[in-house]
Amino acid sequence: QVQLVESGGGLVQAGGSLRLSCAASENLFRIDNMGWYRQAPGEERELVARITSGGSTNYADSVKGRFTISRDNAKNTVYLQMNSLKVEDTAVYYCHAVRILVPGYNYWGQGTQVTVSS
Fold this sequence. Notes:
Elements: E1 4-7, E2 10-13, E3 18-24, E4 33-39, E5 46-52, E6 57-59, E7 67-72, E8 77-82, E9 91-98, E10 106-108, E11 112-117
Parallel strand pairs: 2-11
Antiparallel strand pairs: 1-3, 3-8, 4-5, 4-9, 5-6, 7-8, 9-10, 9-11
């Protein structure tokens, strides 16, 4: 069982910044993909950003140029730097870990609330 613990959410005004952290109980070298997803009320959970064990990244079009995902393997932690926040970024943000060749290795954190006010 892998544990993912998110932190860093909160209330911020539009245009502001937040940095989310996701601490994993597993060595990040063993995890193929780490990602951040978000879910707004009444909406489906959607991918925000993802980073592979090799450092490749991809982003949702809605956050490109504003959000940056990174990983610190020494700390087993993945970050999401969010700049120029918009009201529509308001959601619960979840950390996700998956190992492609390990059946059932698909874990979620408990989520952290991000609220952007106008």
